[in-house]
Every structure is written in C-alpha cells, then in structure tokens.
Amino acid sequence: MLEFLSGLLNTPSPAGFTDQAIAFCETAFKPFPDLKLKRTQKGALLAAWPGEKNDSPRALTAHVDTLGGMVKEIKANGRLQLTRIGGFAWNTVEGEGCTVFTRRGDQVRGSFLLNKASTHVYGSEVGKAEREDENMEVRLDARTQTSGETQDLGIEIGDFVAFDPRVEIREGFVRSRHLDDKASVATLLAAVKAISEAGLKPRQDTFLLISNYEEVGHGASAGLPQNVCELVAVDMAAVGDGQNSSEFHASLCVKDSGGPYHHGLSNHLRDLADKHKIPYMVDIYPYYGSDGEAYWRAGGDVAVALIGPGVDASHNYERTHTEALVATANWVLAYLLED
Ligand SMILES: [Zn+2]
C-alpha cells in the first residue's frame, strides 16, 4: 500500500492533467484478473469486479486528481502568473518547487514565490503582501527575462503546473502534498490485493471508480453504471481544531457542506467498524464536498456514504499515519466482504 502510494504521490496529477496518474493506477490494478478495467470518456478509471451476488451492486470511489496551477499569463519579466486549480490558499505552496508541463511534452522546473520575495530588497512587505494571484509568480529555472524567452521554452497559456509533493514516510507517518485523495486510492488497491490473494470475491458486484475531477467538483458525477445501489466515497478526513478525526483513525463523515450523507448506509458502515474493531471516528467537515455528493447532484439514485483516513493540514502540506490507512483499508474490506 505504501509503495503504491509513494509512486502515485510522485506522479503529478493536477485536476485536468491526470492521464499519467490514471495510467499508474491501471498498471497497479491490472494484475488482478477478476477486475475488468476501462477508462471512461472523461479519463477516469472504472474497474468492474464480479461478486457472489448481483442483486444490489455497490461502488466505491476515490480520486487521483489534486490541487495545482495553470499558466494564466506569461509576464513581461519572463515569469509566470498562475491561476489555481482547486480550492486552496497560495501561501500553502509558497516557496514550493514546481514543474510546468508544456503542450509539446517538455517539463520546465521552477519555484512558486511571492513577486517581492527577498527580505533584503523588500523588507517587511514580504510578510505583509496579500497572497493573491497578481502577487505570486513562478520563477523558472531557465535563462529568461522576457515573455518571448519564456515562450521560446515552449511555455504557453494553459500549461499545467504541479507543485512538488515532497513525500516522506517515517515512523509510520506519511507526509506529502496530495494525500487527498491518493491515500484513499492506495487503500482501495490494498483491499483489492487482500481479497484477490485470499481467493475471495466481493459479496456483491462492485465497481471501483478512480475519479479524476473531484477537486473541481464533478469527478464522480459520471462514470458509474446505472444499476449501482450504493456508493461509498473514500476520501480524506479533515483533522483540526474542533474536529473528531485523527491521523490514527479512519473517519465516517455524516455531514459536510453538501448536507447529511445517507443515514442507513452510514449506520451500516458504523456497525461494520464496530464489529471488526476498526479504529474510527464519526465527524462533520465544515468546508468540504465529496465525489459522493457530486454523483447525487448529477442525479445518481444511490445511497451515499463517506469514509477515509484522517489527514492533518489538508490542502496544505498534508500528513497522515499508516494506522489511518490500515483502518480505512480494513473498513473497505469489511464493506466489500459482508452483506
Ligand atoms: Zn479529496
């Protein structure tokens, strides 16, 4: 699980630029012959997994797309102004290394900084400047001082920019950007591997949707077959002041910005966690939406619930613990194997 997670975290995938990450998942799910894989038109990965029964097909979803940037403007000084992909504050990536992906397939490295970055030049302005689009820029690791020289590098408006994940795994902690939601994708893979290697099948026909537009609100709104009765979104739990979630537990989210989740399915998941002694918390996330709700909004007539590993400092430099990942994987296993 950790090896796959590390590889996926190191595969850049801002929403809209996820082909590589989807291919990485495809390679990981391919060795399990019971799973039939296909890519949706939208570029997500759908795995169909026959179960012992097919009277109430189930689905689980987790997303590989992440926060990121896109080139909004090539500035007169050769540096780049970005527009944000997904919901985050610029200060959470200030000073971070980044890669610009050109249309021709080249990669140009750089770093994301305040325009007035040097304390020796700008003094107290460095601390006070608003972290707004116009005040932030990408400084490219290339000899360019004009917009023309930057264009000569092959960089254009609309090029995707990925921020370095800085993956570090030690003492059971996993520290990286974009654990949201690559950590959950890893728990799904772990569950598939465990069930397959034990020679088992899921209780019901099951679909796994690795979605690719969650951070912009419509990931799982398409891609699931019509006959699915239940959808469990597996996505990070929000850890912070006043929250019940923790880096050492999985969480069940009963309500977020989109309102309450399905009471019956949520209670079923709680019963499963109790029965299997899975360390879990029940929580409410104040500023949060999920792919489960995206499917509901798109008209999906299913019961939807949300579980996932606790992630500290989400949409910032995130961290979780292996215990939360194992708890989530075990919860997914219990859901897949039981009635
Ligand atoms: Zn997420």
Poorly predicted segments:
none
Query: Helices and strands, in N-to-C order?
Result: HHEEEEEEEHHEHEEEHEEEEEHEHEEH
Largest sheet: 10 strands, mixed
Measure the end-to-end span.
25 Å
The kinds of small molecule bound in this structure are: zinc ion
Give the overall pLDDT as a whole number. Answer: 98
Total helical segments: 9
Radius of gyration: 21 Å
User: By helix and strand content, what is the structural category?
Assistant: alpha+beta
How much of the residues is beta strand, in percent?
25-35%
Number of strands: 19
Q: Please state the overall shape, judged from the principal axes of the Cα atoms.
A: globular
Helix share bin: 25-40%
Protein model, in words:
The structure is a single chain. With 339 residues, the chain is of the alpha+beta class. The protein is built from 9 helices and 19 strands. It has helices spanning 2-9, 19-29, 119-122, 125-128, 147-152, 179-197, 263-275, 291-297, 322-337; strands at residues 36-39, 45-49, 53-63, 68-74, 80-85, 97-101, 107-114, 136-140, 160-163, 168-170, 173-176, 204-211, 230-234, 237-239, 250-256, 259-260, 280-284, 303-312, 318-321. Strands 1, 2, 3, 12, 13, 14, 15, 16, 17 and 18 form a 10-stranded mixed β-sheet that branches. The chain has a 6-stranded antiparallel β-sheet with strand order 5-4-9-6-7-8. A 3-stranded antiparallel β-sheet has the order 10-11-19. Strand 6 and strand 7 form a beta hairpin. The mean pLDDT is 98. The site of zinc ion has 6 residues, from helix 6. Residues 63, 180-181, 214, 235-236 line the site of zinc ion.
